[in-house]
Amino acid sequence: MAGPLVFITGASSGIGQALARRYYDAGWRLALAARRTGEIEQWAQAQRLDAQRYAVYAADVADTDSIVGAGARCIEQQGVPDVVIANAGISIGVDTEERGDIEVIARTFATNNIGLAATFHPFIAGMRRRGSGRLVGIGSVAGIRGLPGHGAYCASKAGVISYCESLRGELRASGVKVVTICPGYIDTPLTRENRYSMPFLMKAEDFADRAFRTIEAGTSYRVIPWQMGVVAKLLRALPNALYDRALAGRPRKHRQKDK
Fold first, then answer.
1. Is position 185 annotated as part of the catalytic site?
2. CA distance 65 to 15
3. What is the rounded distance in angstroms from the CA atom of residue 209 to the CA atom of residue 187?
4. What is the pLDDT of residue 188?
5. What is the domain class of 5-258 according to CATH?
6. Sign of the torsion formed by the C-alpha atoms of 235, 240, 246 and 250
7. Rounded to whole angstroms, what are the CA distances from 193 to 91, 93, 253?
8. What was the pLDDT predicted at 146?
9. What are the DSSP E strand ranges found in 22-121?
10. Which residues does residue 179 pair with via DSSP β-bridges, in sequence order?
């Protein structure tokens, strides 16, 4: 079928699923990638999606060959996407004193950073030749300042922000735009496990609508909701001593052993 195509990783739940629904409602074709393909199929059937307008690709973004292969299959079966959203990510608390958590840090970087670059990789050449396309990296407000007990996630999302900025400069003259979106607190299965307050908590559907409009506009960087962008800038401006004092005693993210 004709129509623009969006490729979304982490499409089996949360933000990825909400984005898939928003793009589908706007008339787009979907290329949905995730490890849990059965959950995508169940969701698509429950949503009564037209089977001719979507395809599902099994992929683990932490495995470079797996996600690159999924991208290649997408190009073969559906063509070069107009938008690629590297949404898949993990968030697990860590304690660097604990030896086992070093593996958690490595897995987080493999998923959130290398997996993001590997998601984009198969599509860049085709987008360059066409002279158009949007590569969307899902960062986080957590990438703006470090949070105690959350070092792996914060560092990985800071990496997403910097990597996308670098890629944007590399592709500036190609017609391919790079969009960085930093969600605040979004109501998803991932955030429902948090043990701390989540100001300006947003429904996934509302986030998806704002993200869709941001991507369509080709905006280079945006925090959603905007209120969290203001909070992040204020926190960034705080002297370290005040910032550390403000976060003293804050509940920490669940570690792997706590799950």
1. no
2. 24
3. 14
4. 73
5. alpha beta
6. positive
7. 10, 11, 8
8. 87
9. 29-34, 54-58, 83-86
10. 136
How far apart, in Å, are the Cα atoms of 18 and each of 105, 206, 220, 224? 27, 9, 21, 14
Segment 205-250, tens digit of pLDDT: 999 999 999 999 999 999 999 998 898 888 889 899 988 887 776 6
- Per-residue confidence (pLDDT) for residue 255, from 0 to 100: 65
The closest alpha carbon to 134, from 112, 89, 164, belongs to: 164
Which listed residue (153, 163, 185, 196) is catalytic? 153
In the chain, count H helices and then E strands.
Answer: 9, 9
Positions of the chain with pLDDT under 70: 1, 189-199, 249-259
The partner residues of 30 in beta bridges, in order of sequence, read 6, 54
- In 3-state terms the chain splits into helix, strand, coil percentages (rounded to 5) of 50, 15, 30
pLDDT of residue 196: 59
Q: Structural domain boundaries of the chain?
A: 5-258
Q: What pLDDT sits at residue 257?
A: 62
Nearest-angstrom CA–CA distance, 131 and 171: 10
